[in-house]
Amino acid sequence: MSQRISILPENLTNKIAAGEVVERPASVIKELIENSLDAGATEVSIEITAGGRRKICVTDNGHGMSREDALLSLERHATSKIRVDSDLENILTLGFRGEALPSIASVSRFSLATREAGSLEGTEISIEGGRVRDVRACGMPPGTVISVEQIFFNLPARLKFMKSAETEAGHVGDVVARMAVSRPDVTFSCTSDGRELLRLQQSDLQRRLAQVVGRESSQHLYPVMSGTGDTAITGFISGPALVRSGTQSMYTYINGRFIRDKVVQHAVMQAYRGVFDRGRYPVVALFIELPAGEVDVNVHPTKHEVRFRRQPVVHDAIQAAIEEVLSRSPWLPSPVAAISTSKETTGQAYRERIAAAAQASLEMPSQRVSGIQYSSNNGALPAAPVGITSQKSLTIGEPDTPFRPESLQEQAMGYFPSLAVIGQFHSEYIVCQTDSELVIIDQHAASERVAYQRLKQQCQSGSIESQRLLFPETVELSFSEVTVAVTFKAELESIGFELEPFGGTTIMVSAAPRIVARKNPILLIRDILADLLRFGTSAAFTEALDNILSRIACHSVVRGVHLLDNRQIKELLLQMDQTDFAASCPHGRPVSHVVTLAELQKIFKRT
Ligand code: ADP
Ligand code: MG
């Protein structure tokens, strides 16, 4: 009889656990800050070197540990936070698994120094790759200092997956920001290679948010305060003028714990439907408080996911809390807001009004959203017919050139210009004919394709036309986004942006690709940074380039219903002819559709 199975040595099980809990320096820092907060710290300071790859150090003024506890804390499944089965149903601390310290210590050169307020000296323990090297007494103020050097030095496979120091530092900044929002009563500081990333004094939520999401952004946040049964939902949410390209600025917390939960996210987005287009997200800091027994946090080792006992109830409570605020449109000048508080609570009416407000703020970037003014004011364009919000979609690349009828004749040889225009359907489709075909063109997809192709050409022949903004615009970003912006500064310049770091997590944009400079270039740069973040900084910019160009093209055209006059239609057909045309827009949607005479005859049973 052979024995195939054996119980793994503890050092190996710790390494396996580390695989789940310790993904990168930022996840180590999350665990260490959680421990500091659980220990009642009022001050937490984080220092990293080389993005945390070389060294992480977290210092707190919490209750510290005795020598015995300090030694125990490094054993697997050793915790002071739960004791018996039933405690698992009622978790009030951030930690409870007793896994973080031994896991981290098993994949780094680790040291823990700690002192309880009442004891004369502290204890310092050094561990290397999970093996205790040294235990000694040390002098230190009460609290705990944990230092983690050369993370993954004994796990080469993991080491390979780490990104550049800048990228890792960006993630660290984001994690610290998330935790700092959850505890405005705690002072946080964070330095990277000796440079201060964050310095957050003890404060209230509103001020803390202003420091984390940016002062300008925070002016578009409105308080949420709602309670139903034993569920309380409080915090701040953005109005239609504050929009992000990803979920990064959605800070959601259950009982004080930052979570990334699908149910919660869905509830938030449901409340915002009709306010933002698809792919747009609000900024929120939402605190959901409910009895510990109502929520299971023991779902995943990172504790980012939760399970609700009564999921629909929580979902609807969150949605209602946000809708209640949005329905009051607190961003409107106060007389209007006062009227709207009267009756309108939920439903279509307020959504329409929010949509209108959002639309207005997008269409009038110069006044509402961003205060952008442009240096070349274009008076040359023909006046827009009534009902047309903008006709820039048809003057792609050359918004300042008035329409020249001759150019039509010069070029009127190709397929699209040869079509006889019947008219426009639904202000969205151009309907044309040849002798034997009915041709329907999606005007939005076509404009986008034309813009994309032109950008691609410009890109290949050197650079994309850029236009200076008369008043440079500041953009408040997350740490990761700033890292991406700085890393790809030169590349972003090659596609028409000019940007400079402006201190903290703010950048200043002074120029944008010409075809979008009159639209909302700030929203575009957010989209592009989100794209680059998704690709990861190690990926070459060129990998993301096509995506980015199609984003610019998409931003350059007017979406949805858009009345065109005959001349504008002709010009679009001409531009389509000059475009190296694949029969689809950059997103792969078709641009035109042909119905042949034979097909029609079949429909009408004429054959
Ligand atoms: P958990 O937090 O799930 O209990 P950890 O491995 O993170 O597991 O920590 C183990 C134990 O070490 C904690 O339960 C706590 O008692 C102690 N501990 C860890 N960090 C600190 C700290 N910064 N201050 C005081 N005690 C700490
Ligand atoms: Mg812990």
Structure overview:
This protein is α+β, with helices and mostly antiparallel strands. The chain has four domains: 10-202, Histidine kinase-like ATPase, C-terminal domain (Heat Shock Protein 90, 2-Layer Sandwich), CATH 3.30.565; 206-327, Ribosomal Protein S5, domain 2 (2-Layer Sandwich), CATH 3.30.230; 335-456 and 558-603, MutL, C-terminal domain, dimerisation subdomain (formyl-coa transferase, domain 3); 465-554, MutL, C-terminal domain, regulatory subdomain (Ribosomal Protein S8, Chain: A, domain 1, 2-Layer Sandwich). The chain is built from 22 helices and 22 strands. Mean pLDDT is 83; it is low at 335-347 and 360-412. The structure holds adenosine-5'-diphosphate and magnesium ion (MG). The site of adenosine-5'-diphosphate (ADP) has 22 residues, from helix 2 and helix 4.
Write a concise keyword list for the protein shown above:
4 domains; Heat Shock Protein 90; Ribosomal Protein S5, domain 2; alpha+beta; 22% strand; 607 residues; binds magnesium ion; binds adenosine-5'-diphosphate
What number is the mean pLDDT? 83
And the CATH topology of the largest domain? Answer: Heat Shock Protein 90
The neighbouring-strand order within the major sheet is 5-4-3-6-2-1-7-8
Q: State the distance separating the first and last CA atoms.
A: 80 Å
Q: Which class best fits the helix and strand makeup? A: alpha+beta
- The general outline is elongated
Could you give me the name of the CATH homologous superfamily of the largest domain? Answer: Histidine kinase-like ATPase, C-terminal domain
Bound molecules: adenosine-5'-diphosphate, magnesium ion
Strand content: 15-25%
Number of strand elements? 22
User: What's the story with the biggest beta sheet?
Assistant: 8 strands, mixed
CATH architecture of the largest domain: 2-Layer Sandwich
Q: Helix proportion of residues, in percent?
A: 25-40%
Could you tell me the radius of gyration in angstroms? Answer: 29 Å
List unreliable stretches of 5+ residues.
Answer: 335-347, 360-412
How many H/I helical runs? 22
Q: In CATH's first tier, which class of the largest domain applies?
A: Alpha Beta
Tell me the count of domains: 4
